[in-house]
Design a protein that fits this description.
Blueprint (H helix, E strand, L loop, with lengths): L1 E5 L7 H15 L6 E11 L7 E10 L4 E8 L2 H17 L4
Parallel strand pairs: 1-2
Antiparallel strand pairs: 2-3, 3-4
Helix pairs in contact: 1-2
Length: 97
């Protein structure tokens, strides 16, 4: 399973990206046969002209087709990552349609 973490600012420093890879892998490891890969985007949220939160958006590509998406906000990268991964776990536990 390939996990790609994308981010270009301080919200996605190397430590946050490594933490994100670990959390996403841990959440998806039990679903390995169903998961092709994951893409995570970390970026500052610019609501109302301020940059006071971070957005973590996770897209998981599934076998044989389809995807699951989770998006969350937090005051810092770790909070956004934790919330997005928690939601991702809930989505992956749902039976396939």
């Amino acid at each position: 399973m390939r996990i790609e973490v994308i981010g270009e600012d301080e919200s996605s420093n190397a430590q946050a990206r490594t933490y994100c890879e670990y959390r996403v892998f841990a959440a998806l490891a039990r679903y390995t046969p169903r998961v092709r890969g994951a893409r995570v985007v970390l970026q500052r949220d610019e609501r109302n002209g301020t940059c006071d939160s971070v957005v973590c958006a996770v897209t998981v590509a599934l076998e044989p087709s389809g995807s699951v998406r989770s998006r969350s906000h937090g005051q810092h990268a770790y909070e956004a990552i934790n919330r997005a991964v928690e939601r991702l776990g809930d989505l992956m536990r749902r039976p396939a349609a």
